[in-house]
Amino acid sequence: MEYRIAKGVFDILPHDPDTKGRWRSSAYWHYVEKQIHEIAREFGFSEIRTPLFESTELFTRSIGATSDIVTKEMYTFFDKANRSLTLRPEGTAPVMRSLIEKKLCTQQKVYYLYSMFRYERQQAGRYRQHHQFGIEAVGNASPYQDAEGIILLYTLLTRLGLKNLTLHLNSIGDSIDRNAYRTALQNFLKPYFKCLSVESQARFETNPLRILDSKDSRDIEITQNAPFILEFLRDETKSHFETVCALLKNEGVYFNVNPKLVRGLDYYNRTVFEITSEHLGAQNALGGGGRYDGLIKDLGGPDTPAFGFGAGLERIIQAMLAQGAYLPEEGILQLYMIPLGEKAFAPSFHLLNQLRNQHIVAQMDFSEKKLKSAMKFANQIKAQYVVVIGEEELKTGKISLKNMKTGENKEVSIDQLVETMKHV
Ligand code: HAM
């Protein structure tokens, strides 16, 4: 029986032998994750980690019973006590559950970096386990909070060297604006009902706003002249949106107001946004989010406003590779030690540990290779320096430190190796 990886998921490997799978190299993930932790800290967000699964009800209640995630994509199972549990398909609801439960719904700025699970139809850019960097800022209704969140993601992506990004921005108003708009949109769509895609026909009553972001060409054509929600915003929601736009403009963050952007999760109100890259295929959203002022109350917490986003690491790394952005190759190996003969092993091993105690990245050949094949291996693993330690070296106390790039050899005493390596 040959066991194979499950559909729609992938391994992150030290090196993926498949050239198309370069984005799955762990060195790239470490680099991007490091930048994420750094920027989150700079913007004042602290890390939160919630469990991999939650009660199913938490997701149906928050994401929306008619959303794609809830209707088609959840990994739901029953535990031994017959409780319905679901692998988290997204991060917002679990974080809100945690903050409500711990009575932390005052001012909180948290972020997370972990995997989400969605049973998606398999296609490029859509995985059944994907990794998200998300932030959630709770307790602040100010448009400055929206701007801060959007600027954080935009800054991260630019720091990672991504270019040709498009920031799509919209406001879907509050429930009063949306109710008025919903009726206007349904009135507009009614004469075309039969021409809409089957999916959009199903959404006509339950969630007509989602028809606006349908990818079906018939729906796109029909909605071209549809009324836009921005025309239905009342003064307060309109002014909130205008302030967000002004703040972004002021910081040189360019955006497109995209009145068709509605997002696929039900909890949003007011500002919604997405950042897309032109270097990805159909699944081109690197990240997206918005304001969700009603969610905490809906989940049984205090009436608390909030703003957040989620961004997919797979797509970020793929876009970086497509654009030739800087990504470090695998970790650097400073020194490779080749002991020759049985007697050389123990002293070499001792030296290896002394080197590591001084934070020098060193490895030793444990496999008693012949010198030629050990040198070949050192080359393969891109060692910067190599030392060979045999009986002769142990007798004289001197070793030859070989610079693998220049081929130069430098004689150093074994006692001085650690000190020398600190300064090369
Ligand atoms: P989302 O738009 O569903 O939002 O996901 C956020 C990002 O995760 C997407 O823009 C995309 O980059 C990535 N992503 C989503 N699904 C997949 C997939 N199947 N494969 C690969 N990447 C994927 C949310 O999840 C919200 N919780 C974001 C949020 C946080 N809103 C407020 N706070």
Describe this structure in words.
It is a single chain. With 424 residues, this protein is α+β, with helices and mostly antiparallel strands. It folds into two domains: 19-173 and 233-323, Bira Bifunctional Protein, Domain 2 (BirA Bifunctional Protein, domain 2), CATH 3.30.930.10; 333-421, 3-Layer(aba) Sandwich (Rossmann fold). It is 37% helix and 22% strand. It is built from 15 helices and 16 strands. An eight-stranded mixed sheet has the order 1-5-6-11-10-9-7-8. Strands 13-12-14-15-16 form a five-stranded mixed sheet, with helices on both faces. The longest helix is centred in the first third of the chain and has 17 residues, at 26-42. The mean pLDDT is 95. The chain binds histidyl-adenosine monophosphate (HAM).
Write the layout of secondary structure elements.
Blueprint: H1 26-42, E1 46-47, E2 53-55, H2 56-63, H3 68-73, E3 76-78, E4 84-87, H4 92-101, E5 108-117, E6 129-138, H5 143-159, E7 165-171, H6 175-189, H7 198-206, H8 217-223, H9 235-250, E8 256-257, E9 269-277, E10 285-291, H10 295-298, E11 306-312, H11 313-322, E12 333-339, H12 342-357, E13 362-364, H13 371-380, E14 383-389, H14 391-396, E15 398-403, E16 409-413, H15 417-423
Parallel strand pairs: 1-5, 7-8, 12-13, 12-14
Antiparallel strand pairs: 2-4, 3-4, 5-6, 6-11, 7-9, 9-10, 10-11, 14-15, 15-16
Helix pairs in contact: 5-9
Bound molecules: histidyl-adenosine monophosphate.
